[in-house]
């Protein structure tokens, strides 16, 4: 999806609590739905006292999506607690990742306004099989379409269970809620995980894409906690990951006004990469060549570093290459 500039600017303003009166509410709502930010948009406007200025039909729609997502997140929290209790009874204290963290830490009728696709849990490498067996006893089965996913028919989301890999020097902290124990990565670790997951693992740095839901998560995390961006940057292993890190910091500052170290975002390469991500959002037609070049470079890298997968399964690789070139795997990104 390539959003029009006015819709994107109205969405970002709304997430920051400012209502931008637009003549194209449909485009704004379509973008909010695509980026999975509709409940967050309504919550932000409500908290800032701006939601009453929305057109009645827009207000009703946003409120409906917000209420549906709240009900879904209450069910996800119950599902998460049940799983963590079962793991605790098996002697396992899982590490909660991404959206599972604020869900676990919430209480009563208050749950995050974030739309969550699944619940991400990690356990020590030697405990993965025991954890899977424990969840199997709860009725979970492996989902063929998801590498690490386990699901049940009665649930609204999957559980993603994976080995825990520490990405920085700070170990997760033990948290207990009503006797249920889980380990929570520090805010620094969570911020680094989001950046590396999107920019490096999912190649958004190469492909010029942006996951605004994760960028908004990062902005809220930075607002709630005093993050040491310089220390996080220093922990990165090479120039490529540092460039990707700096590019995301510049996007964070540009769209959400976050305070980031000037030395991280002033370099010409970082500013060029940021421009390469933003230009296609504001100029969809003119931005097509930029996206095509980025997708082509990433596709070639995958072929060269794919451990011979192109030779073993050329048809599969061809389909994957076409998907990359045509941006068919955007998901909720733009």
From TrEMBL:
Protein name per its UniProtKB record: Nucleotidyltransferase
Q: One Pfam family this chain carries? A: NTP_transf_5
Q: Which organism is it from?
A: Sinorhizobium glycinis
Q: Which InterPro entries match?
A: NTP_transf_5 (IPR039498)
């Amino acid at each position: 999806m390539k959003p029009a500039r006015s819709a994107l600017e109205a969405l970002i303003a709304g997430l920051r609590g400012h209502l931008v009166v637009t003549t194209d509410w449909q485009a704004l709502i379509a973008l909010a739905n695509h980026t999975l930010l509709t409940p967050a948009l309504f919550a932000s406007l409500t908290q800032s006292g701006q939601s009453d200025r929305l057109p009645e039909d827009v207000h009703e729609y946003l409120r409906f999506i917000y209420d549906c997502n709240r009900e879904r997140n209450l069910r996800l929290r119950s599902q998460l607690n049940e799983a963590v209790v079962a793991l605790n009874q098996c002697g396992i204290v899982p590490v909660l990742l991404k959206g599972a963290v604020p869900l676990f830490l919430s209480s009563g009728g208050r749950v995050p306004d974030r739309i969550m696709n699944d619940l991400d849990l990690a356990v020590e490498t030697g405990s993965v099989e025991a954890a899977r067996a424990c969840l199997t006893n709860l009725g979970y089965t492996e989902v063929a379409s998801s590498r690490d996913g386990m699901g049940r028919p009665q649930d609204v989301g999957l559980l993603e269970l994976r080995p825990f890999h520490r990405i920085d020097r700070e170990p997760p902290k033990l948290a207990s809620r009503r006797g249920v124990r889980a380990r929570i990565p520090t805010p620094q670790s969570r911020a680094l995980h989001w950046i590396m997951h999107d920019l490096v693992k999912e190649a958004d740095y190469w492909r010029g894409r942006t996951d605004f839901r994760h960028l908004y998560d990062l902005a809220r995390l930075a607002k709630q906690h005093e993050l040491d961006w310089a220390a996080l940057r220093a922990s990165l292993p090479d120039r490529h990951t540092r460039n990707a890190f700096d590019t995301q910091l510049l996007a964070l500052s540009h769209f959400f006004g976050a305070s980031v170290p000037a030395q991280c975002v002033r370099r010409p390469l970082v500013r060029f990469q940021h421009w390469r991500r933003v230009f296609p959002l504001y100029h969809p037609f003119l931005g097509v060549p930029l996206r095509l070049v980025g997708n082509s470079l990433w596709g070639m890298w995958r072929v060269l570093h794919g451990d011979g997968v192109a030779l073993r399964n050329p048809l599969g690789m061809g389909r994957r290459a076409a998907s990359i070139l045509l941006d068919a795997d955007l998901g909720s990104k733009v």
